[in-house]
Amino acid sequence: MPAAPTRVMPAASVRLRGPPCGQPAHLSPATWQHGCVTAATHSTLFPQVPDSADAVLDGLDPEQRAVATALQGPVCVLAGAGTGKTRAITHRIAYGVRAGILQPSSVLAVTFTNRAAGEMRGRLRQLGAVGVQARTFHSAALRQLQYFWPKAIGGSLPRLVDRKIQLVADAAAACHIRLDRGELRDVTAEIEWSKVTQTVPGDYAAAAAKAGRDVPRDPAEIAQLYSAYEELKRERVVIDFEDVLLLTVAVLQDRRDIAEQVRAQYQHFVVDEYQDVSPLQQRLLELWLGERENLCVVGDASQTIYSFTGATPDHLLDFRMRHPGATVVKLVRDYRSTPQVVHLANGLLAQARGRAADHRLELVSQRAAGTEPVFTEYTDEPAEAEGAARRIRELIDAGVPASEIAVLFRTNAQSETYEQALADAGVPYQLRGAERFFDRPEVRKAGIALRGAARFGGNDALLDDAPDLPSQVRAVLSGEGWTPQPPAGSGAVRERWESLAALVHLAQDFAAARPGVTLADLVAELDERAGAQHAPTVQGVTLASLHSAKGLEWDVVFLVGVAEGMMPITYAKTDEQIEEERRLLYVGVTRARERLHLSWALSRSPGSRPNRRPSRFLDGLRPGSSGAAGRGGTAGAGGVERGSAATASAPVAPGPRRRQRSPARCRVCGRTLTDAGEMKLMRCEDCPSDMDEGLYERLRDWRAGQAQRSGQPAFCVFTDKTLMAIAETVPDEEHALARIPGVGMRKLGRYGADVLAICAGRDLDEDRGLN
């Protein structure tokens, strides 16, 4: 049903109650510069729901706040790794809902994985934004298709097949074409690519050649298999995953009445990971939107790693061309990783080529300095796995939780060696990509047992000696296989124990956060978490491919197999494929919060010829290596760009090459500065200030007038730290003002004359001839 009319407020007219954003009286920059803005995994497990709309904005940095308060028209958020993009867009939705600007039922937030959608729903629930739809593209389309199919087509929707590979095998048999297991998987992938790029069987050969795809069979054979596969589906009256999107697009295109009904329901759209949108998903999004522009997209072209599935960053990079009035916000403050990890990540992209590299974002770490990345060379792959397992064992013995360590590799085939090495070292582990937590049989059985105990526990002697929630959960789950000590070894028994242990830990955290809760309260919490796919942490080192690690993070990351032939992978031949491999390594590096280990082996097995070399991507970055120092490109600084018809007729142009800067040092004590706020002041926070208080107040009054005239927050003119730095240095000419961090050439040209006049003690009105 259509939603109630939405009250829309222009982004520039959104006014926050209380002091302006960036003022210390309302929100100290230290609040968001020193860890308040963190990943979900480091947030409070059971946070209190904010008590007001304004409270939703607490803790956001200036750029995130700009995202959260830009609630009308097209908005494009270019968000680097670890910059809090999910936080920004969920707070945006929650702020709009809590302020009464957005109706919850009129908002549709879409992303690409069930895990990401579940995380988004969980965060929205914690922010008090109940009723917002957060789904994957496929799940949103399937829901609409199921509802409208009887009206549009008649009858019931055909059955959705879970795995298409058997259908492809049957199609191959019908065509008398023999496919081994690998070819079967590869042909299935080609069919999927064809469908998401809206390529019909007759056009497959030409489309694959144009896209430069490395096809597994003769293109004519694949086209024949594709055609037979589609015919087989029609005969069996089934549809596949890609058909869900294709059929939804067809219904919305052919039935204007249905399209209008959907548009009346959903009036505001948010798309996460927009760099991964396929042409088919983009077409569906356009049909959902119609002629409207209430769309917010967020993405990072430097994290485009799924082009083999049809994903393309072009929709993200061309957003300003399609939406001339768009507001563009760049998030570059990295709250996840230490400066050392961020430096390596920036170095990787500095050597990149291609369109995505031209729009890369240069991250600025907001964390304290940490340890340098460790680069290790091994004689062979088993030695590399044993070395990683040995270091992991040492970290765990030193107090690092196993769940905060990950081993990431290029292909799933590398997993077995590391599973064995970790098992031999007595290290618990879990494989990423296994079934979802709440779908595991042991978790479902545990849920039934906990529900029964909550209902009839008063008559259960098992709970007689369990006075609080954690002890009650331990008592119930002991009957399902949980024990105080983990079982020896690895395998299925250990994995089941880890699942039950995660529920025990969740109960302990739940009771600590909310004293007096009951078993029934925990069951209700588990039900909500299952609906949102908000799983508790499983204690064990994560083993994952680089592709499946996207969107995740750990304190310690081991990137293994970083050698030529594996990174980049052997079959990456074209420049575009090589650059995607570089971006894949970049994604891996940016998963690490505190410590990063990179390793490679000179040979595959003991005694083999050592004919391998470290990845070319590490040239010039690892100690003792030489290589290209990189290039300028448009390493984007953070900030907000307001769209206008005059500026948006073309994509954002590359900026000038940024010069390498020497380390910033305190002008009082000489210490190297790493904190962004201290770098703006050009001194340590606790070093004595010689600020001219009167000048500072005059600058603040002037800034307030500028902000009011331009209709933007005060911090967008100059931040408090920049004004303080000006009031301390009192520049008397342009080049002295330009040296102050936070000024820059653009603001110097716009505001420089005014600021220098104020510093000189002149009256601006008199200078302008006003009475």
Characteristic terms for this protein:
alpha/beta; 43% helix; single chain; six-stranded parallel sheet; seven-stranded mixed sheet; 771 residues
Structure description:
The longest helix has 22 residues. The N terminus is likely disordered. It contains 30 helices and 17 strands. The strands form four sheets. It has a seven-stranded mixed beta sheet, sandwiched between helices. The chain has a six-stranded parallel beta sheet with strand order 11-16-15-12-14-13. It is of the alpha/beta class.
**Rg, nearest Å:** 28 Å
Number-wise, the strands total 17
Strand percentage, roughly?
5-15%
What is the strand arrangement across the widest sheet? 3-2-6-7-1-8-17
Please state the structural category. alpha/beta
The number of helical elements comes to 30
The helix content, as a percent range, equals: 40-55%
Unreliably modeled segments: 1-44, 629-634, 645-663
Main beta sheet strand tally, sense and closure: 7 strands, mixed
The end-to-end span amounts to 59 Å
Calculate the mean pLDDT score and round it: 82
- Inertia-based shape: globular
Pfam family, one: UvrD_C
Catalytic activity: ATP + H2O = ADP + phosphate + H(+); Couples ATP hydrolysis with the unwinding of duplex DNA by translocating in the 3'-5' direction
Domain UvrD-like helicase ATP-binding: 58-338
Region (Disordered): 603-665
